[in-house]
Write a structure and sequence with these properties.
This protein has nine helices and 17 strands. The strands form four sheets. A seven-stranded mixed sheet has the order 5-2-1-6-7-9-10. Strands 12, 13, 14, 15, 16 and 17 form a six-stranded antiparallel sheet that branches. It is elongated and about 70 Å long.
Length: 324
């Protein structure tokens, strides 16, 4: 008899895992995902990426606002899952749900646990300056990403990686690792190992206001912030009260003797070492310990532009002070 699996997930990150499960020999008896939400200027109801895939695949979809009410637990119980698989579902499961499937609840988590437990592990990895990251398959328990580990796989972080690019690669890595791990978990040959709680770090949910750049910080830390908050919420600064997002940047060791946040033109010497200089690096911003070369930026309501193209429409931008 095929193993009955319930899948829980919502964003793009969850799609590779659901796709692999659909392609497998397991019986997907239900897909739980976030409720449809209003989005865009027209405030039209938008389905989660997971719901769209599940509907296209003919799978039953469930969208309870919470799995806490007894009636929601009873509905899940009627599906008689042998195993529940989670990938970025966004809800904390309580004990009545965790106790339902005989084979437990497995979670695909995009970090090398116990490092970066919590809601935003990928941005946290970049902000911390980690050289590598990875995925963990763990058994879910009542704590936040604290359950025993079934398997892990590592992956290097490139200097150009953003949360967006890492998410794509980690989603594929996690989906592959889950499918490799599940048979051994189901037949008992894979054993879960407890985490070392003393090594745990936490990655709370991001807030939009955290994207604001403090130009007194070190250039390397602002560079990490630009990468970590791409695509959301975006690292941003202000000029005359207008928000300006910075989407791509590079830290420079050399700087100018000027006030924090001041925009300067980059000369040839300052531009050495910028791998993406040919793509439009033409300006820098004074930080707490050097210049941050800005490669791509965007005014509110406009499209993102390479720095050289941005300056063509903002000829007085050099010399201005950002973030005042």
């Amino acid at each position: 008899m095929s193993t009955r699996v319930v899948f829980m997930g919502s964003p793009e990150f969850a799609l590779p895992t659901l796709s692999r499960l659909i392609e497998s020999e397991y019986d997907i008896v239900g897909v739980y995902t976030a409720r449809d939400r209003e989005a865009g200027r027209g405030r039209r109801l938008t389905e989660s990426p997971v719901k769209r895939l599940a509907v296209a695949s003919g799978l039953p979809v469930f969208q309870p606002p919470s799995l806490r009410p007894p009636e929601a637990v009873a509905e899940l119980e009627m599906l008689r899952p042998d195993l529940i698989v989670i990938a970025a579902y966004g809800q904390i499961l309580r004990q009545p749900v965790l106790d339902l499937p005989p084979k437990g609840v497995l979670n695909v988590h995009p970090s090398l646990l116990p490092r970066h437990r919590g809601a935003s592990p990928i941005p946290a990895t970049i902000l911390a300056g980690d050289d590598e990251t990875g995925v963990t398959i763990l058994q879910t328990e009542a704590g936040v990403d604290s359950g025993p580990i079934l398997s892990q796989r590592r992956m290097p972080i490139e200097p150009t990686d953003t949360t967006g690019s890492l998410s794509i690669r980690l989603a594929e890595l996690g989906a592959d690792l889950l499918i490799e791990t599940m048979p051994g978990w189901l037949d008992g040959t894979v054993k879960a190992m407890p985490q070392d709680d003393s090594l745990a770090t936490y990655a709370p949910m991001l807030r939009k206001e955290e994207g604001l750049i403090d130009w007194s910080q070190l250039a390397i830390n602002i560079w990490r912030k630009v990468r970590a908050y791409n695509p959301w919420p975006g690292a941003y600064t202000t000029l005359d009260g207008e928000v300006i997002h910075i989407w791509d940047a590079w830290p420079l060791k050399n700087g100018s003797v000027t006030e924090l946040g001041t925009v300067v033109a980059l000369d040839e010497e300052q531009s050495k070492g910028i791998s993406a200089f040919a793509n439009g690096a033409a300006l820098g911003v004074q930080t707490g310990d050097g210049l941050l070369a800005v490669l791509t930026l965007q005014r509110a309501g406009r499209k993102a532009l390479a720095a050289q193209d941005f300056l063509r429409g903002q000829r007085d931008f050099i010399g201005r002070r950002l973030g005042e």
